[in-house]
Amino acid sequence: MNKKLFVLLVVLMSLSLLGIIFVQVYWIKTSINDKEEQFSRTVTDILDKVASRVEKREMKEYSDQLASLADSIGEPKGAQYKKFMFMERDLNSDEILFYSHGILEEDYNITSAFFDNKLGGSDTTTLKNFTSLRTKSVFKEEFGLDGKSYSLTPIEKVTNIGKLDKIERAAWEDVFMEYSKTQPIHKRVSKQELELLLSQELSNRNIDIDYEYGVYSQGYPTKVRSRKFKFSGSKMYKAPIFKDSEGQSNFSLLLTFPSMKRYIFSSVMGMAILSLVFTLVIMLAYSSAIYQLIKQKRISEIKSDFINNMTHEFKTPIATINLAVEAIRNPKSIEDKEKVLRYLGMIRDENKRMHAQVENVLRISKLEKNQLDISKDRVNMHDIITDAIAHIELIVQDRGGYVNAHLDAERSDVLANDMHMTNVIVNILDNAVKYSPETPKIDVFTEVVKNSIIIKVQDQGAGMSKVVLKKVFEKFYREHTGDIHNVKGHGLGLAYVKRIIDDHQGEVYAESEKGKGSTFFIKLPLI
């Protein structure tokens, strides 16, 4: 993948993810704000309703007090009666409507001094009662055969007895409100009443949350408040209570909810959790996609490196074979049997070399597809190690180095495949030779730990960094040392080692320090 295209793709995906996260956070915040606003409107409505119910209850008590007083006095001192009436005839239905309205004014001759002058008027103000009597009657007019009326049949009669009209009631309520102002607040409303009304209204709106309340007079607290109520702190909701005829009031009913934030958040918790879960899923998918892109890019680069190395390693044998063939075709050389045999030997060796490289690649491919048939028998690991050392001993000696075997394990029989296990030891030894810039110095140790044999291959070569050490058993991975072709190989040898050892229920790992060499460990179960 093109590097610029890869970077652009990552940037676009990152911006998309950030956009999704921003939208989710904005939605949660907006939902909480909407819930809080809705909660505020509901609580304000509850306060207004509670204040109205308290005011109506107080007014009813005052009205009942006056009614009880009038009943206890008995007959009024004086009374006046006014009556108004009209009649209307419907010619279509032969019905006659009679309507009458009478007003009875009763004077009990009780002055305002009875109420300790708390009404604020003069002593001549007296207690009066007004009664309204409204009667509606409908008659059917019937006629005889001669066409003359001779009787009226009653069809309907409705009588309504009322007290005061709207104007008179407004005047009465104004007097009541002025009188109520003189009463202390704790006599007008109790804590028990407020708690009952607030609990009822909150329950009617399905709000189950702890609250604190208080009645304040012009910013100062009164006795009517809950035990834990505080004027400052949590958000307070406020509504006037005990308004006068002009809508003004010196008292305010305050309500607070100490755990309101938690209550609001819990109301959107379900959707918020789902939103966060989906966002996390998207983030995981995004991370996985980025990881796969990076991995594919790295694999692409490693495969390109592998192809370059493979091409490089095939070019030399092919060139050598071509030169040998041309030399054999030379008439002067064909007469020389010794030269012909030498050239044929070169062709055979180079052909084997290319065949070995191809077999190495095919073995890894079959291992990954689980198509490699690995039969296991009882083998002696000391014999396998000795055989593997023989494969590379000439190369090491040619470079002036050595391979020393320290086979100290008391037991060395394992269940393994002779050929593949030999290839494993050869690959590790060959790796030690390749990455020894100077004279190869290799030691092979064996020992028994519990019921396993430990094979240790130690060199004094270039060593590996910690980053390389983590990836050394990955397919196609090779550490670059300057020119990528200065060390022969395809990054398949150690990957093959790990797959074979894993198939034998063993372990393989390495320890290394840059510039001081590497040590490879193989652990196999003994039989």
TrEMBL record:
The keyword Magnesium does not apply. GO terms for molecular function: kinase activity. It holds the Pfam family HATPase_c. Keywords: Kinase, Membrane, Phosphoprotein, Transferase, Transmembrane, Transmembrane helix. The chain crosses the membrane at residues 6-28, 263-286. Its EC number is 2.7.13.3. Residues 309-527 form the Histidine kinase domain. InterPro entries: BphY/WalK/GraS-like, HATPase_C_sf, HATPase_dom, His_kinase_dom, HisK_dim/P_dom, HisK_dim/P_sf, Sig_transdc_His_kin-like_C. PROSITE patterns: HIS_KIN. It catalyses: ATP + protein L-histidine = ADP + protein N-phospho-L-histidine. This is histidine kinase. It comes from Flagellimonas okinawensis.
